[in-house]
What does this fold into?
Amino acid sequence: MSRMGSGTGEPESSDSMRTFGAVLQALRQHFGYSRDEFAGLVGFSVHTIVSIELGRRMPDKDFVLAADRVLGNMGVLKQATIHLRRLPGLASWFRIWAELERGAITLYTYECRMIPGLLQTEAYARTLFTEQLPPLDDGQIEAQWEARADRQQLLRDQPNTAFGFILEEHLLRRQTGGPEVTRELIDHILELSELRHVEVQIMATKQESHAGLRVVP
It folds into this structure.
């Protein structure tokens, strides 16, 4: 899943990101560029410009260099990036879902894209974080894993909540991260499925009929 408010999976915005965005917007307007014009000049989409100006997206190095060149080569944006920081942990939109999880009586998940976060091993999760776009640095990856590991305690701390997971078979056959990561992941899921309040089902790739096809008109 991705950030609900901004369209990516980055952690929540920070004061420094919002300040950078405000400076960028002020410079763009000072030079008389609309967002459409500016996007064409720097080679990034209008959506990216909006997200950065609103402090919802961390600008990468290529964007900063291109924007600084278009906006007079004053070095203002380059200097401003020194103080840029994200808030660590869960993405801002996901904090809402995490709060709902804590109060849930039953929680059922169907997943066809990746192993749900509550069931992931550290190695599997780090593989996903490493492949994320825009790329995360080492500190952000650590923050993401710490937040995920903390969230996974729900399975141990809430024995009165019924957790149900339906996973497509190809999620395991894909071997994300390699054979060893997958082997550890399968062992981990089997161990969690031994918990009385946790049920894990695997949907076979070849399945001519299943309950998900029962669409109510």
Q: What stands out?
A: The longest strand covers residues 162-168.
